[in-house]
Structure formats: C-alpha cells, structure tokens
Amino acid sequence: MLIVYFSSATENTHRFVHKLGFPSARIPLRRTEEPLRVNEPYVLVCPTYGGGASISHQNSRPVPTQVIRFLNDERNRSFIRAVVSSGNTNFGTDYGKAGDVIAAKCHVPYVYRFELLGTPEDVETLREGLLSNAEALGLQAPLTAA
C-alpha cells in the first residue's frame, strides 16, 4: 500500500506518514526537485493551508501548490484511491478543507483527517482503516504489517 504525501518544512505530515509504517513517496517541496511520478494506486495525505478562509476570504487555496502540480499530471491523478488531510481545528469549518477539495475534484473518498501531526490514536485508526478497506479502495495490502 503506497502513501503519497506532501509535507512542508515543518515536517508534521512527514512524521505522521512515517508512523503509519507503509511504503511512502513524498511530493517534492521545491520546483527544482525531480517531480514525483507514481505507477501504482495510492492514498494521498495532504495538509490544509490557509485556515479561516471561509471567514476572512483572504486565502481560498487550501490545497498546497505542490499537490496541485502533482495531481495535474494525469498519470498521477489516475492512481489516487483516497485522500487524508491534516489541519488545525482553529481553522473552524476549514479544518481539513484540502481533503474536501481533492476528494471532490478527483472523485475519491475523503477517508480521514487529523490535527497537526496527529495523535497515536490517529495513526492507529487510519492504519487499521486502510488495512481493513484496502480491497474496497483498490489498494494492495502489505503482505506483512509493520
């Protein structure tokens, strides 16, 4: 089971994904890095940017530019099977909003959201949920659990 993720310089999403124990691939942070191309079904894990946009209308782009660029590659987009998003509950109704946007645009289920770098319970809940639903999501379950 492949997890594709984007993590900013804070590394919150990176740490969360690492705790899941599944094979993963990181969407590059900088344009100068080699673009990521995937060749198998994956779950996308993405942070939400611009909290509070629904109220302030100052930043209406919750999906990081790097993720948009990755998903604009038709091949990459063809392999997405589900989305997970992080955010901050201080964002109010925009908490995890990137997941809503990606799920709607890519026609995939939004399966989980977690705050900041997640809790041990978030890691366990998502891990078990993905393993239990791998077949339904069209994902290859790992032969051995990490």
Description:
It comes from Corynebacterium lowii. It contains six helices and five strands. It is globular and about 40 Å long. Helices cover 37% and strands 18% of the residues. Helix 1 packs across helix 6. With 146 residues, it is of the alpha/beta class. The mean pLDDT is 91.
In sequence order, what are the helices and strands, one letter per element?
EHEEHHHEHEH
Given helix and strand content, the structural type is alpha/beta
The biggest sheet amounts to:
5 strands, parallel
What would CATH call the architecture?
A: 3-Layer(aba) Sandwich
Function: Probably involved in ribonucleotide reductase function.
Protein name: Protein NrdI
GO molecular function: FMN binding
Family: Belongs to the NrdI family.
Quickly describe the structure.
The chain is α/β, with parallel strands linked by helices. 37% of the residues lie in helices and 18% in strands.
